[in-house]
Design a protein that fits this description.
The protein is α/β, with parallel strands linked by helices. The protein contains 11 helices and 17 strands. Strands 2, 10, 12, 13, 15, 16 and 17 form a 7-stranded mixed β-sheet that branches.
Amino acid sequence: MAITLRMRPERRFLRLQGSETHIDFQIQVEQVAEKVKEQRIPLTLALVLDRSGSMAGGKINTAKKAALTLLDHLDERDQIAVVVYDDQIDTVQALTKVTPAAKTAISKQLEKIEARGATALHEGWLTGCNAIAGDALPGQKQGLSRCFLLTDGLANQGLTDTEQIAVQAGGIRSNAGISTSTFGIGEDYNEALLGPMAVAGGGQFHHLRKTSEIVSTFMGELGELFSVLASQVCLEIEVREGVTTKVISAYWSQEVSPTRQSLTIGDLLGGEERHVIVNVVFPEQQKLDGQTVRARIVWQEGGQKRQSDWQELWLSYADERLCEKELPDPHVVQLVGEQKVDQAKREALKLNQQRDQQGAQQVLREANVYLQANIPYQQGLQTEADGLSWISQEMEKSPGAPMAPGFVKEAYYQSHLRSRAQRDHRAPKDPEEE
């Protein structure tokens, strides 16, 4: 299997007094013939289900149905652990091979689960990850490990700090090889927690508008896990001392050294393509020399660590005349504009929910500065600018008050989907909510 990396800069000339450009890191996995079912990768899953009081009724019942539906599509190649949580944590099923007997036992245990209590989200999730950490069960081949975390509410017991939890998700991914996908149902959970958890954890974040989407989204992600060709994919970027980088796309970044960053991309399917946009700022320089940006891909395949060769991109310092004459790459400009808009939406919506309307509007204005400066080179950015203006106007309609939670979560989710090239596994929304 081959993973290709292509680096395309917005501009290639740098100003002597200091300059910046955006680089599109295009990652693509080769398309392969469809694998037969017997060849798919073995899975190790932790299902962590919220059973707090707000899950009473249709939500908890559908969550249990989704768990059983997922179990029906696993077999003895796979392993599973099931955890439920409110303000207390219960392991419904310790890690076990998915045999017919295990499916029956889990089904009987889930029948007893009822909604109650508060939401110890962090401890519940951590218990699920710990349940599948360590060596595989005897006779199990090394495969792919992921935790599914489902909730409809705010973390209000134990650790609740969003940044700390996201950092832990990144640590569990890098140290234990366990990725995390998050599923938020309804309008009361915190997307500013579940989104970063999934990004740092190398999984996917899902906003579920109604209970029936629990089943369709669980199964949609399971189908993708069956088709993963490259797991634990990371993009490593190396620059010279004095050069700074800022990731625009929705990917988790960790500093490997003062001049190298590692970006968590996640698991990739055959034929999949991702675009990672990074802003690179270069220092002042006295001579007409240049700067090199290096990058490579690191991933897991068949239980083995693999990495691509380092690729280099050369950017030249030039006099003001050449810098003024150079036209930007319109394809990269479009991608940068889209990713800046998605980033601005996520940040502005977060600030809006915190009642920081001034900060939210400032974020939108800053993104719009880039769009307006580059519309002459890429007319497609006008649509993006119109979208930002519409959100700004909607915020102004209710000064000092947060926007409707349902609108915020859907807008946040759509920006997340596009930035990460993630699929929406929800069924089309019906007029009537369940």
